[in-house]
Input
Amino acid sequence: MRQRYLQLLDEIREEFPGFRIVRKSEAWTQRAIHQLLRVLTFGAQSAYLDSYQTTIRRTVYVTADWEAMSDAQRYITMRHEREHLRQFRRYTLPLMTLLYLFGPLPVGLSWFRAHFEKQGYAESIRAAAEVHGLEHVLDRRFREYVVQQFVSGSYGWMWPFRRSIETWYDGVVTELRRKDQE
Output
């Protein structure tokens, strides 16, 4: 697994010159975002600094426990974050920021945030199936974890329509099953 993770990092560096990994706790901007999110979500998102990796432009900001994570978990996470790197390249920092934070609303109906995160989490699901097997992503606990990211305060209640997120998740898994049968 270590080799696969290191190979992924090499691919990302080749695709994104200037790519870097920075600890969130060492970036004043990330500490400020953490405090702002705690206030804006009334404490529902108080784990930003310690539990969520974040991509902005060509930088992936990681939690303090990043190096202690397994290569498998870092591989899965970086597959997700690579999708965000690609989004920043496609949309540019100003447009990505505007769409991610405010499109069309900052809370509740954040269609663009949900759209961008669906792309990232779809890659997380694919990577988790690759690393741990299809049974892992079929497990109701894993499914519930992913669904909760969309419908809870984790991302500011970005998309409150639980059923649509469950349908999306099931669609990603159906695609994986189909490829697995080929």
About this structure: The first strand starts at residue 20 and ends at 23. The beta strands are 20-23, 54-56, 59-62. The mean pLDDT is 95. Residues 2-181 form one domain.
